């Protein structure tokens, strides 16, 4: 991993808020890079990792709600959930309260146990 560079000093007269914003931006980029490495280690694509994160931290939810959270159309999230369900250790849950039972995602996944 590359060495961490010190945050640049703001030029004289630059507002402190701009300097803090620059430091925060740099820290966010470093964090995203580390998270991406972890995602790669799980063997998940970015869309699968994102959906799994919503499921793990938000709990089981209907496909429509997951699609809205991921800002994708329902057919897209259906394919994502199907891919997650095929992974070892995943278990789908079913919403039985509706005559149109739809799969609900479960946080039980091999990725969570790691």
Topology diagram in text:
Blueprint: H1 16-42, H2 46-58, H3 63-70, H4 74-86, E1 93-94, E2 103-104, H5 110-113
Antiparallel strand pairs: 1-2
Helix pairs in contact: 2-4, 3-4
Question: What does this molecule look like?
Answer:
The protein has 114 residues and is mainly alpha-helical. It has a domain at 44-113: Winged helix-like DNA-binding domain superfamily/Winged helix DNA-binding domain (Arc Repressor Mutant, subunit A, Orthogonal Bundle), CATH 1.10.10. The protein is built from five helices and two strands, in the order ααααββα. The chain has helices at 16-42, 46-58, 63-70, 74-86, 110-113; strands at residues 93-94, 103-104. The chain has a two-stranded antiparallel sheet. Strand 1 (93-94) and strand 2 form a beta hairpin. Helix 2 crosses helix 4 and helix 3 crosses helix 4 (74-86). The protein is elongated and about 60 Å long. It starts with 15 loop residues before the first helix and ends with a helix.
């Amino acid at each position: 991993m590359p060495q961490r560079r010190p945050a640049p000093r703001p030029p004289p007269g630059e507002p402190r808020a701009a300097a803090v914003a620059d430091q925060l931006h740099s820290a966010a980029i470093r964090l995203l890079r580390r998270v991406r490495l972890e995602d790669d280690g799980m063997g998940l694509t970015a869309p699968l990792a994102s959906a799994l994160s919503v499921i793990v931290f938000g709990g089981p939810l209907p496909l429509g709600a997951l699609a809205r959270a991921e800002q994708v159309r329902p057919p897209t999230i259906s394919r994502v959930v199907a891919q997650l369900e095929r992974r070892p250790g995943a278990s789908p849950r079913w919403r039985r309260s509706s005559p149109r039972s739809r799969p609900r995602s479960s946080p039980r996944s091999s990725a969570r146990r790691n």
